[in-house]
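Hi support team,

I submitted a single chain yesterday and got back a structure, but I'm not sure I'm reading the token output correctly. Could someone confirm the output below corresponds to the sequence I sent? I've pasted both exactly as they appear in my results page.

Thanks,
R.
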Amino acid sequence: MNGSSYLCRKFKPIKMSKVLIIGAGGVGSVVAHKCALNSNVFTEIMLASRTKAKCDKIAAEIKEMHGVEIQTAQVDADIVAETVLLIKRFQPKVLINVALPYQDLTIMDACLETGVHYLDTANYEPKDVAKFEYSWQWAYQERFKEAGLMAVLGCGFDPGATQVFTAFAAKHQFDEMHYLDIIDCNAGDHGKAFATNFNPEINIREITQPGRYWENGEWVEIPAMSIHKPIDYPGIGPKESYVLYHEELESLVKNFPTLKRARFWMTFGQAYITHLNVLENVGMTSIKPIKFNGIDIVPLEFLKAVLPAPDTLGENYSGQTSIGCQIKGIKDGEEKTYYVWNNCDHAECYREVRAQAVSYTTGVPAMIGAMLMLTNDEWMKPGVYNVEELNPDPFMELLNVHGLPWHEAVNIELPHEY
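Hi R., thanks for writing in. Yes, this is the structure output for that exact sequence:
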């Protein structure tokens, strides 16, 4: 898809645009690298984290690889006042939150207090209960509108690009969408016995909860990992895929009410499931504190500390990810299917930004979302938005430009029952 005419027509002149990135894990590193590679838009960059040494390491890597200097800082994003002080000192135009989802609300509060636009990649969840939903952040709608500020929620890949894919399909391919299946495959090999590709605490909380999908106007809850089947992924082949609940479903069924069913599928290898089952059976995935040597510890937090950090997996990672949307609906009175997807290579990501593909596919859309907020009038309006509520066309074009090219297939047979 050639986006040059659209980009020339819709993008406004670049002014000085400072960006503050909070979070220096695997995704935060990718966001910082990609912002540095687009320093014509992100003219000043600050990377902040609870541990400044992690930021300094990423900054040195960016200077060595791309010749761009970024600033670093220490901040505890759980404390609104600390984040406010940092924002007032740096004065960014937009804040990209790639810290923990527990910190979304405190960072949004800091943005409101300082007049800064906000973007994140994962919805809020309380630390003491494995429950993630958008209600807490949607409740900020009027406050952001009244302040003349924008908050973009869930602008990674899934959530994020998958919602852009769905909005793009609704705009260009269908009169009505009836069935949506988001399919996510990581066919990579990092050589570790057991490791998670993003924050272990968040990852394990997510997949050990009961699954849910949308059907005929209501949520259907199922035991965790109880619905599964092989799905054939482009360039990869068939991989066993499991239905689980994923946050973008909540906003997609709200914003596309013609959907009769919406599901999310993710691949897991048998070795991963075996390890997870054992850890769950012995209580290591629990988020309830236990006493150990007289102090309270959370088993899942301890497990996170002993597992390989996601940002250390990239160097020897091989293989690809494949994430996309398979949709069935109606166009001009006829049934139609549409499949749109991206494949991303782990080794290529490492060569470009020293990261594995799971971090890359989350970090690049976050950078694109912030870029659009700063440069595209259609992507800057007061209020709180999920990405499917915004024009998908410029986002789709920038995915092709910045390392996540997408592909599409029309009226092919999809691997789902209807």
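A quick pointer for reading it: The two ends are 30 Å apart (CA to CA). Let us know if anything else looks off.

Best,
Support desk
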